[in-house]
Specification:
Distance between the termini: 57 Å
Shape: flat
Number of helices: 5
Number of domains: 2
Strand order of the largest sheet: 1-2
Largest sheet: 2 strands, parallel
Radius of gyration: 24 Å
Number of strands: 2
Length: about 130
């Protein structure tokens, strides 16, 4: 696939993904500050194969950082399903902690769901004939 055909990239809402696309978006006029520079160096350091005992020269490091700095990602779209899931899961915990009646109803429903899962897993096991 040609890079020019990519219009958007859809990812989850993880802060690391959002930040990567914010920093390296196409047409970005973002100035990289010292904190971002340090974080980018940390990311590059984490990606280095530490089993390789060859020393990384300063010039190699700077060249690889220049490539990293010039990286431009396509436009970013956060996944709507993931966003709705995050909202629902957070609301679920909030409602469960604030209402005893909701907590009881929720716990009963989840126990029933778990019991259904146990039955289904039991049905999927091979039947032993005597």
């Amino acid at each position: 696939m040609k890079l020019s055909k990519i219009i958007k990239t859809i990812t989850d809402n993880g802060s690391n993904m959002v930040k990567a696309f914010r920093i390296h978006r196409q047409g970005s006029d973002t100035v990289i500050n010292e904190e971002t520079l340090i974080q980018n160096i940390d990311v590059m350091h984490d990606n280095i194969d530490h089993g390789d005992h060859d020393a990384l020269t300063l010039s190699q490091f700077l060249e690889s950082f220049e490539e990293f700095e010039e990286l431009q990602l396509p436009n970013h779209e956060r996944c709507a399903t993931h966003t709705l899931h995050l909202i629902a899961s957070q609301d679920k915990y909030k409602a469960r902690s604030q209402s005893n009646s909701y907590k009881k109803m929720y716990d009963t429903a989840m126990a029933n769901v778990e019991q259904c899962g146990i039955y289904v897993r039991g049905l999927l096991k091979p039947v032993k004939y005597i």
